[in-house]
Write a structure and sequence with these properties.
The chain contains twelve helices and 31 strands. By secondary structure, it is an alpha+beta fold. β4, α4 and β5 form a beta-alpha-beta unit.
Length: about 600
């Protein structure tokens, strides 16, 4: 996270016509962060000796994965202009954060990789930018690569935006070629903030995080009025009250000032204790002179992917709980409740915005807090309508009420878009169909096809993205948004190990898929669970009906090795004694289930 510079520099108020607020939008790995690095270098915001790759990506995870997880604003000065840049995440899980960042800007740089062309997340972000009425400057990056196809990708951008080919800026962010031209166009083509004067102050929170030493720090864009240091402030959505302890801009370190004026982007250090009090998209106003209306577009972000997190040993449960509480202070989307499993012991069930969000939280818990974790198969939430008329939300199959009381079960469906080269349309439609998806429409952008479809979210949670990449030789890209809940013929599929139900393995599944999924899963469990001294039965069941079974054969110890010669009845007697012992062991023996068994459905093929 940013660290405040020891000497606080007073920021000069800038006239509004000299301010340019813009962001960079692109698909993952199209060069957003590298372009941001060059802009910082060219404007002298960061000295060359202090420069490092992915300057605005402050987490180790971001550098390793090559993606932006947490957005970062930075203020640059160029030829007398104040340029405020927001480096946004490119992954679908964080699309709400991207939409709030776009609201804070007047323009956007649309960066497209000259070798890969337009991808699904590029399209999604372009639609968000158009909805936010932003001026878009198209930028073609990585033109120095041998695989770059400037003509083809340029034609894709022209057909998407309706601009002229000569309007597309051709650059190489890595070498710095053409980046100066980008700055010139930002100053010349992007509009200045529109002045508003209603006599009140309103500012949009487009990001917030928790600092262990300073409390909650907000990244804001002031739309009208001004926020001065030490002003009492109020959050509209949460009605939380705080004080602006420090105000300033990021250059890219925190540089303190006296106020943030209309049109400016900066940070506010508050005395709030959790980001739940100051959520992304909320509106800040002054407590002494409050506004009556909040800025449009705020919504409460709800998680829709859930997984159980358990420590490897129960003695570390408190450490896991403390670690998640600390992470939730700076991530208001993270929701969790305690969970207890007969096999895994005490743990926590956590809600996420998507699978990448879950992956990031898991890695942070393991790295930053040195925890060894067992993570159960991710699932989504379901709406269960009972015969009494009551509707219950469940996040785990184990919470499903008695089937005799259930009228219907509704599962979440998504609207998705897949962008692929035209040669791969057939295999992709087959993949959508295999996931119970419905293909709606196919449109074409030059030599690429965009396939629109609807599908149940639960079927896309596990290996859909991997299968898509495999089928399309890595060219396919995928974007989605939650649509609605639909009533389907859903059942709970339970798994038994040695006659005991393992509730952590239970999943909700469509009745037509239960048989094949049950059979596949018990076959995988047979490979993972080690052999015992007695035979172990692995079974899949719906209610009281078993639909699949595999047996793990017992170790066979040759108890007759010590017998030499003599009558055959001696051997039979010893073998009968062994069989009797195994029978008894089967009744009382316990099977140790390894941690991998609980993620067996993450990779189904």
């Amino acid at each position: 996270m940013p660290v405040c510079t020891p000497t606080s520099v007073i920021l000069d108020a800038m006239t509004q016509d000299r301010i340019r607020n813009f962001c960079i939008i692109a698909h993952i790995d199209h060069g957003k962060s590298t372009l941001a690095d060059r802009l910082l270098e060219l404007t002298g915001t960061v000295l060359k000796r202090d420069m490092k790759a992915q300057m605005l990506d402050r987490m180790d995870l971001e550098r390793e994965k090559g993606i932006t997880i947490k957005l970062a604003p930075v203020r640059m000065d160029y030829k007398g202009y104040q340029l405020n840049l927001i480096d946004t995440p490119g992954h679908v899980d964080f699309s709400y954060e991207v939409s709030r960042s776009l609201e804070a800007c007047e323009g956007a740089l649309l960066v497209v990789d000259a070798s890969q062309g337009i991808q699904a997340q590029t399209l999604a972000n372009v639609y968000l930018a158009i909805a936010a009425d932003l001026t878009i400057i198209p930028v073609l990056n990585k033109i120095d690569l041998p695989a770059a196809d400037v003509e083809r990708v340029g034609a894709e951008i022209v057909s998407l935006l309706g601009c002229k080919f000569e309007d597309i800026l051709q650059i190489s962010a890595k070498t710095g070629m053409g980046v100066e031209n980008v700055l010139e166009h930002v100053v010349a083509d992007l509009p200045a903030p529109i002045p508003r004067d209603s006599g009140v102050t309103r500012a949009l929170i487009f990001d917030s995080y928790y600092d262990d030493y300073r409390g909650v720090i907000l990244y804001v864009r002031v739309f009208e009025g001004a926020i001065k240091k030490s002003s009492p402030i109020t959050m509209f959505a949460t009605n939380a009250h705080g004080i602006a302890l420090e105000i300033g801009a990021l250059k890219p370190q925190m540089t303190a000032g006296t106020s943030l004026e209309t049109g400016e982007i900066g940070y506010i250090v508050t005395n709030l204790k959790s980001t739940r009090e100051a959520k992304v998209g909320d509106t800040i106003t002054l407590t002494n002179n409050p506004a009556t209306e909040m800025l449009p577009g705020y919504r409460d972000v709800q998680p829709f992917v859930y997984a159980g997190f358990f420590p490897e040993s129960n003695e570390f449960y408190q450490e896991l709980k403390d670690a998640i509480e600390k992470l939730s202070l700076s991530d208001s989307a993270l929701q969790f409740v305690p969970e207890n499993s007969p096999v895994l012991g005490f743990g926590v069930r956590i809600g996420f915005l998507g699978l990448l969000h879950m992956d990031i939280i898991r890695e942070r818990l393991e790295r930053e807090y040195n925890l060894e974790l067992v993570v159960t198969n991710p699932s989504t939430d379901y709406q269960v309508e009972l015969l009494s008329g009551e509707t219950v939300d469940i996040q785990s199959a184990a919470d499903l009420p008695d089937p005799a009381r259930i009228k219907e079960i509704r599962e979440p469906w998504i609207k998705g878009e897949i962008v692929v080269p035209q040669d791969y349309i057939g295999p992709v439609i087959q993949l959508i169909s295999s996931k119970r998806g419905l293909q709606n429409n196919i449109s074409y952008i030059d030599k690429r096809a965009m396939i629109s479809f609807e599908a149940p979210l639960a079927n896309l949670l596990t290996d859909f993205y991997d299968q898509l990449k495999s089928l399309t030789s890595g060219y396919g890209s995928f974007n989605y948004e939650l649509d609605n809940y639909r009533a389907e013929d859903l059942v709970r599929l339970d798994f038994y190990v040695a006659g005991d139900i393992v509730s952590a393995l239970s999943i909700m599944v469509h009745r037509t898929e239960a048989q094949s999924l049950g059979r596949t899963t018990v076959e995988k469990l047979k490979e993972i669970i080690p052999r015992q001294n007695f035979q172990v039965a692995l079974q899949a069941a719906i209610g009281g009906k078993f639909i699949a079974r595999e047996d793990i054969s017992a170790f066979r110890k040759d108890v007759t090795t010590g017998l030499y010669g003599g009558d055959v009845s001696r051997k039979k007697k010893v073998l009968a004694k062994q069989a009797k012992g195994k029978k008894r062991m089967k009744r009382f023996g316990k099977v140790d289930i390894p941690a991998e068994a609980f993620t067996v459905m993450l990779k189904r093929d």
